[in-house]
Amino acid sequence: xxxxxxxxxxxxxxxxxxxxxxxxxxxxxxxxEYDIKNDLRKSMNQSLKYISFEKDGLKIEDExxxxxxxxxxxxxxxxxxxxxxxxxxxxxxIKELEVPERLTVSVTSGTEKYYVRDVKIGREHTKxxxxxxGIIKKSDAxxxxxxxxxxxxxxxxxxxxxxxxxxxxxxxxxSRALDDMCKTAESIGTSFDITKRMTENYKFQEVxxxxxxxxxxxxxxxxxxxxxxxxxxxxxxxxxxxxxxxxAQCQYARERMLSVEEHEEILDVIFRQSKKIDSLIIQLxxxxxxxxDRIEIQDxxxxxxxxxxxxxxxxxxxxxxxxxxxxxxxxxxxxxxxGLIVIVIQNxxxxxxxxxxxxxxxDVKTGEASGESYVQVxxxxxxxxxxxxxxxxxxxxxxxxxxxxxxxxxxxxLSKKIAEKHGGRITVISELGKGSTFTLYLPVQKKIPSxxx
Length: 453
Prior knowledge:
This protein is an alpha+beta fold. 50% of the residues lie in helices and 19% in strands. The protein has a five-stranded antiparallel β-sheet with strand order 4-3-7-6-5. A five-stranded mixed β-sheet has the order 9-11-12-14-13, with helices on one face. A hairpin with an 8-residue loop joins β6 and β7. α5 packs antiparallel against α6 (260-291) and α8 (338-354) runs antiparallel to α10 (411-421). The chain starts with 7 loop residues before the first helix and ends in a 10-residue tail after the last strand.
């Protein structure tokens, strides 16, 4: 990586400081000119104290000629010099100069610049009318300003040099860190080894934050890859068993002469296993479409009481081992896709039935609370250990690691996705050996009265 890319702020700072120097130069010249004119005015006002009128003419005290930085010339009204002398370089230029009274004008002669001011002295009714002309050479007056300006320029140059040196040092270190990050990223891209991580002990906080963000992204990618591998393995495992059963039954039927009863039994096994495969594929398709946001929610009014009653009646007819469903239904409405919500309720009931004890009871409740409508399914079976409760919504996750339990471990994952798609959630409360309570929450929607046509 070209570290000069990182130096662009230094270029901007340099340009700004050069602009600052030009601005200081312009402002200092304006300030110097203002101060010189102000000093000339004060000096001339001071000089008038040393001039007086007597019967035989003007009386000029010696102090008049020694006011600092100023040259004075006393002129008659016709412009002839009464006393004093012009600076040598100004003698020719001054003849052509017209100076309005009490205004300061500038005159340039060669490389020197002068400021000139006239003040009228005497009274209108007297016969003596004179002008005092004050002259200041700019180079004499602004020498101390030049020193200050020079010191200012040197300070600016020193600061600029320090910033550039620091910026070059900083940019090299930053670019070295970025080079390291780029090499790590390129290495990951070429070797496909997503276990590599970027160093996080950089001395610059911004670079370290960037490295941490990249590492978090790599962690997420690695986790997704692991989940994908696990997903592929789990699907293969779940499909292998029913397909193996189907193949075994077909092989058995081909090799033997079977009676009608044996054929029916084999067909029944093949049907059950095919139905199991079909159920797995349907759930996987639902999850895939939800992941890709390809399922459009058909918004309808959800009457939880009506939906739960319908699902529970169907379940009660096929329940075995004396398990009963008790209903406690209160009015609850929401908006969503009835078909998808039915899948969620069926999955919750399936789990409750699967893990209930013989002759057990399953309680199903509906209602509204805190702006949410809910369906709650409670069983009093084996329960779920605390360490498993956060993982049960993962795909293919089963608390029974031996995988002898029925089902694929997709029901809760699919149910959670459907709930989130509707802007809702699913919670679980469980205690090992005492049972579990799963609750589906959706936003409350008041029932819309049907129109009579």
